[in-house]
Design goal:
CATH class of the largest domain: Mainly Alpha
Distance between the termini: 53 Å
Shape: elongated
Order of helices and strands: HHHHHHHHHHH
Structural class: mainly alpha
Largest sheet: none
Helix content: 55-70%
Number of strands: 0
Radius of gyration: 21 Å
CATH topology of the largest domain: Tetracycline Repressor, domain 2
Strand content: under 5%
Number of helices: 11
């Protein structure tokens, strides 16, 4: 886990000491991992600074060197998790840039499913259930970190994508994939296998992007009509 990029200007936002050396970074990492473990297995109310310090194996004074209160730790945890997740998604998108959408989309959906399963509480449930943290989460959405790469990926596949407004296409795909993953992970019965889920969500997303019958599809050119008839 990569700890958030903390600077002196962020002191008011809940961080005190800036972890610059490897040992300090490891300490912050241990604090964040302890917080995630406690919140995941016991609940948010159990994640007191004292308990976090105990699980992390550090003194309470060490915790306060970096975080003035519990909420600051949780905000840093959310930020760190999102930054790491987005970095992995960027790598996947760039690696699949030259693959057709039908081949690239299942890989992207599979990666997102893996990350959301590993950090479901932090990425999906925690910010929604705790009002005071919702603002921090909204400012660190995957769209913010991934926008440039996602836009480049979609633009590279512009000939395949029939949706006229590329920004709309990106937003709708985000809703489709993340919404489906959230529901799938919440469904304890898991009526379909993971492989089936990835295949179906990917196919639905690709159909939305490439269907000329989409009411928001871009106008079909004369050359495209000729190709379609042939």
């Amino acid at each position: 886990m990569i700890e958030p990029d903390l600077t002196a200007s962020e002191t008011d936002a809940g961080t005190r000491k800036v972890p610059t050396q490897l040992r300090a970074r490891a300490t912050v990492d241990a604090i964040l991992q302890a917080a995630e473990s406690i919140v995941t297995h016991k609940g948010y109310e159990y994640a007191t600074t004292n308990y976090i310090a105990k699980v992390a194996g550090v003194s309470i004074g060490t915790v306060y060197q970096y975080f003035p209160k519990k909420e600051a730790i949780i905000r840093a945890l959310i930020e760190s998790t999102i930054i790491n997740s987005c970095a992995k998604m960027r790598e996947q998108l760039l690696a699949d840039l030259h693959k057709p959408l039908a081949h690239a989309m299942p890989l992207h959906v599979a990666l997102r499913l893996k990350m959301h399963r590993a950090h479901s509480l932090v990425l999906l449930r925690l910010p929604k259930n705790i009002t005071k943290l919702s603002t921090a989460h909204e400012q660190l959405t995957p769209e913010t970190f991934l926008y440039t790469t996602i836009h480049a990926f979609f633009n590279h596949h512009r000939e395949e994508i029939m949706v006229e407004n590329l920004e709309t296409a990106i937003l709708v795909c985000e809703y489709l994939v993340v919404g489906a993953i959230s529901r799938y992970l919440q469904d304890g019965s898991q009526k379909i296998t993971e492989e089936e889920f990835i295949e179906q969500v990917s196919a639905a997303t690709v159909r939305y992007l490439t269907s000329s019958s989409n009411p928001h599809a871009k106008p079909v050119t004369r050359d495209q009509k000729i190709i379609a008839k042939s």
